[in-house]
Specification:
Distance between the termini: 33 Å
Shape: globular
Number of strands: 0
Structural class: mainly alpha
Oligomer: single chain
Radius of gyration: 13 Å
Strand content: under 5%
Number of domains: 1
Number of helices: 3
């Protein structure tokens, strides 16, 4: 959970998201702010756009999808993959 490989980072971000919801008593806005604080404290996520990462993590949790941290759209200034859903919304 504390390594720099994608699996450990994915586990860490999912735990951050869960903890932010629990600590804010499931208040959505407060949980998002707490999640921002957790991401800012973890240096492994400096290359990522925090707002996109937060939105994608919450979207994956709500729809039971798998979070893919190797998506270039999640990086700062990253472009969407060809034919991805992000380009057609």
């Amino acid at each position: 959970m504390f390594g720099n490989n994608l699996r450990d980072m994915k586990n860490a971000i999912e735990e951050m998201e869960r903890q932010s919801r629990v600590r804010s008593c499931f208040n959505g806005n407060e949980a998002k702010q707490k999640f921002r604080e957790y991401l800012a404290a973890d240096r492994r996520f400096d290359a990522f756009d925090h707002e996109r990462l937060i939105d994608r993590t919450q979207e994956c949790r709500k729809s039971c999808a798998v979070l893919k941290l190797d998506d270039p759209r999640l990086l700062r200034g990253g472009e969407a993959r060809p034919l991805s859903r992000d380009t057609y919304w």
